[in-house]
Amino acid sequence: MSKRKRDREADKAPNVVNDGASQPLKATAKLQSQNQGVSSSSIKPQPSKSSANNANGGLKTSNASIQQPKSAATPKSTKIPRTENHIDVKTELPVVQIITGSYERTLHGITAKLSLNDGKLRSIYADSFLFNAHQSAVRCLALSPMPEESDQGVYLATGGSDERVNIYSLSAAPVPDTDRKGRKVPTMPTFGPNQISENPLNRELGTLVQHSSSITALHFPSRSKLLSASEDNTISVTRVRDLEVISTVKAPRPKVSGQASGDSASAGTVPSGVNDFAIHPSMKLMVSVGRGEKCMRLWNLVTGKKAGVLNFERDILQAVKEGKYSHGEGRKIRWNHSGTEFSVAFERGVVVFGQDSKPRCVLMPSTLTKVHQLVYFRTGKDHEFLACSTDDGKILFFDTAKASTATKDLPLLNPIAYMGGEKHAITKRIKDFQILDLTKHGFPGRLTIVGCSNGDISLLSLRDDEILKPETDGGFVGTASADVYSTGNRVTCLVAFAMLPALDIEGGLSEAESGLGSEIDTEDSSDNE
């Protein structure tokens, strides 16, 4: 066969990415009142309690509410300063997948390709999906643990005010720029200012409708189980393989004094529901906080029964500025990675409890403001810190190991450092944030992804030496920041993960999709044994 004939046959060969991908997307004029997507994989109400959708359509993208980043910059190089040996190496940084939920009931997926040049953080954003996930506001998100490199699949769960939990399968690897033959993969056309990087592996799995009120919290303890909490005072355990509810625990409704009861009580006057829950790293204990309750509840996950109730004493509530007319309820709760302590966030402060459930210290912002989110993270020396976001656009860092139990009074810890605020042009309240450890991917430290109520997504770098050195007590950290991306929607929740290396175009994508299901079968079979 001559060279000219081979070239003609190569031109006639079908493109695998275009055949598997969807058609060019049309911008939607407005959000429809019904729960629908923009493609054949749209979410539809299910008649049964749990159902699985085996449709293989991808999650589609719409350019209706996507806005241009405030300052887009193309990275020049990926030169990363290694602080350990003080040498510069050229390393390809990972692609970060960011997912946000909003009051406008949209689920927005964004990929950020990072680069560092002379200590400056740069990012190229691309939209991976955007559609109506719920009939009302999206309240919480959860990601399953990262898979092995051979599986390349991640579960995403979304909960909304419409009493539904949607489950999706997301690709853990970005779409490669070139195929196996070195040819550039064509990009999807768009009328918007941003690139579109749609992955055909992103698809919907099904919808859970076992709850009778708004979903408040979601968590994947493993890749085979999902826990969901609701305002109906229940916490359900669902098997992801077939979306079957295998267990449900119910918390009692709080007894509120000083309010009407019985026939004279109007609907919604007595607050009830589970605000949040946290699972111990041993997977045997769970702690939950609820609405209208000045206590936290302990649950035995081995037996599925209540283990005890711990009331918040008056001195604890006074320390976190919970007055006589305040609810006195816990809003958020988190265990640290080692399982030696957990933190309960109230409206304006945080109380840290030890493993024995006794209070150790109180954390308060320097200015009286509301607390929205808690995150525990480790440094390179296995030293754990607690970060919390506030209403004034700051993330405060606390060293809870400095808490002293020698005195009877609860010690008050001041923040050792902070990021955000006016120096990072973040002035709106931070509804949610994530801290990713990217040191294994060649990044010199950690990446903080911040989601604000005005729809802005900010990327800030955080090095260990910035937070560990004593001269940064109460000081500003995270000097390197990338361009701000504006989603155009009011962000309510956010999750993110560092994507694995891209797969081959022709064979890797199908292996990723089949590998996800095979791992679940293995985990469930071991659980049944």
Automatic annotation (TrEMBL):
Record InterPro entries: PAK1-Kinase_Regulator, WD40/YVTN_repeat-like_dom_sf, WD40_repeat_dom_sf, WD40_rpt
Secretion signal span: none
SMART domains: WD40
UniProt cross-references to SUPFAM superfamilies, sorted A to Z: WD40 repeat-like (SSF50978)
Chain segments annotated as transmembrane: none
Region Disordered, annotated ranges: 1-85, 175-199
Skewed-composition ranges (Low complexity): 39-51
Polar residues composition bias: residue spans: 52-77
Protein's recorded name: Protein mak11
Organism expressing this protein natively: Lithohypha guttulata
